[in-house]
Amino acid sequence: MRYTVKWVCCGTIATAAMLMSACQRQSADPRLKFRTSATVTITADCTTGNQVDVGVDNWVLRMKKRGDVTFRTQTTTGASVEITQKTPASWPFDEAPPFTGNAKGKIKDKQGDFRYNVRVACAAGASGDSVRVMIDPDIIVD
User: How is residue 127 annotated by DSSP?
Assistant: First the structure.
């Protein structure tokens, strides 16, 4: 994760002997901003040795009420990706899960912390077995 911090001067006071400045530190961290629309990109790939590589680019997503979230899945090796609610009673979207592949959801008019699961499965050889991974990102609505 990388972010930048900027320093912004908010005023200067001159005296007979010196010049003093009062500055305030201001964060440019995009993770602190609540958005009306966002895309969550999930990458999932099956690798050799029954390994699964999974990435989620917006692990904690801060959204405004009635915002739109697009889930975009990218896989080059046939990994199966499914998005489900962690707690069915507190699913933040109007649309019912599960979401598979690319999907879009509109957040209900309510606020809170919502956890969801990203489940990834990869076939493990000719036996019909599979390797499964589940991760737990969050959506915060305010």
Answer: G
